[in-house]
Structures are given as C-alpha cells and as structure tokens.
User: Fold this.
Amino acid sequence: MNIKTIDLVIIDWLRRWYLPVARLAVFAIYFYFGLLKLLGESPATPLAQALVTNTIGAAHFDTAFTVLAVYECVIGVLFLLPKATRLVIPLLFLHMVIVCSPLLLLPQLVFTKPFVPTLEGQYIIKNIAIIALAIGVAAQTRPLQKRPPRNSKH
Assistant:
C-alpha cells in the first residue's frame, strides 16, 4: 500500500465515522452537563446564579436552572436522532445564546483582565468547538428538496 492509498483509506474512514462520533460527542457533553445540573453538582452553578440574578431575578433561579438542565438533556438526546437534526440545531443555538451571554453580561466573572478568561470563561469559550461540531452535523443533513440545476431557468 502506498501513502496515497493509505491517505484515501483514512479519509474514507473519517468521513464514515464523523457523523456518528459527532452526534455521540454532543450527546455526551449536553446530557452529562445537564445531568450534573439536575443532581446539584454543576460547577457552573455560581455563574448561572449570577446570570439569573442579573437578568430575570434571583427568585427564579431554581426554576430556570432546572429548565436549563432538562433542556440540555433533551438537546443531548435529540442529537442522537438523525431525524431530529432540523429541530435540535436551532435549540442548540438558542442554548448557546443563553450560556454564552455571561461573556457580555458578566465580564467580571468570566475574565480576569481583557482576553484572559477565568475557568468559567474558558468553560464558555469552548462552546465555539460545540458550535463548529453542530454546524458540521447540520451540513450533513439531507435537503428536504433537491436544488434545481444552476443553469435551469424558471
């Protein structure tokens, strides 16, 4: 086997396994983090409390945090179901808006100084990788309708 053949075999293997591995990875992250919240073991709790206090009010924290935890678990499970891709991608992006909002709303808790994140800030910034993974999964979705050929006139 020459290097070009090995290269083609590896690329073919990666293409076949990308989607199931990506789906499993997003499931693991979302379901696990949601479960930690439900069990009262999430290290993100103080940051979430500060966010809720500064937005909808501290009195709503328990309800909001439980809803967020269940929402995360649901996103995780839906990512395992290829037929749910069109539903779960917008849910994931809405979730990202919420969980990334401390970067703008609570910068004192997510940065020690400009461009130097706290551990919580790093936890949020890693969401860029999840967004990229979700885009990759969405890009593999079969279109509802085939596009007309580029040269056709209507």
Q: What stands out?
A: The longest strand covers residues 111-113. The chain has a mean pLDDT of 95. The two ends are 50 Å apart (CA to CA).
